[in-house]
Amino acid sequence: MIDGKKVLFSGMQATGTLTIGNYLGALQNWLKLSDEYECFYSVVDLHSITVRQDPAELRKRARALLTLYIAAGLDPKKNCIYYQSHVSGHAELSWILNCFTYMGELNRMTQFKDKAAKHADNINAGLFTYPVLMAADILLYQSDVVPVGIDQMQHLEITRDIAQRFNAIYGDVFTIPEPYIGKVGAKIMSLQDPEKKMSKSDENPNASIYLMDDPDTIMRKFKRAVTDSEGAVRYREEQPGIHNLIDIYCACSNKKPEEVEKEFDGKGYGDFKTAVGESVVSVLKPVQEEFARLEKDKAYIDGIIKENAEKANYFAQKTLRKVQKKVGFPEKIR
Prior knowledge:
By secondary structure, the protein is mostly helical. The chain has two domains: 7-185 and 298-327, HUPs (Rossmann fold), CATH 3.40.50; 205-292, Tyrosyl-Transfer RNA Synthetase, CATH 1.10.240.10. Helix content is 54%, strand content 7%. It is built from 14 helices and five strands. The strands form two sheets. A three-stranded parallel β-sheet has the order 1-2-3. The longest helix is centred in the last third of the chain and has 30 residues, at 298-327. 37% of the residues are buried.
């Protein structure tokens, strides 16, 4: 708890370009949570280097992502928005937690298997211990709540296991975090393969709507979206392409699936795709305009980076000092 509020932590990697899935499934939920929780929103650039990165490009993407957090509506005075790499406590706590994590637990992580398959030429130790760094991210701020997608639940479960194991040995050191799963737009699927999640790293540019896509590009991608031969706008698992488009439309228009079915009863997929595209364009327009404005204000963004790094470090060090004392490290002479 900080100032009577429960603590919430979340973050995104500074790789690729954010999609409408990231926005609807994560960023919009973050906005709703800002008043209720003391929020720490990180640009998790330490996680990014498990895959080889171009240094200049990584720095550029990290700054763009932090700016995009703010452009999307996150108030940097109410939320701690910072670079993970600017808070050394993430890496320090990760090493300690590595010593309380079992190989068997990490071997069961499905994301490691998936990423190892995609990057067979670079299966590094960081990729394997990635969930421990994620646990450190969460536990460092004594987080009560973590917004997660269904595919991230396994990482939160191992975080809870590590925290409970540590607490069982040393007492109540860590808060045991609970998941927060948004109901609307929690999992936006690929426009070209609606059986898999929309990804910012998809090799097919038509599969994802990126937050900086211009209106013409957005409309073109939706027109090319995979549907089916049934010809009816119905919210059914048997129609994954239409199901996905309805999810997107509902998230952008605040409508319910049954309202969408009624709205497009007797109409073709062409009309429906156009409506979905227009709703996404209208949602992204103010975000894009604010991003363009903020990008030009270097001094403002630099100030936020400095102030929020200091805030994050303050709370991180409180936890880290407690953990270091518990495991037996000598106290620093001040």
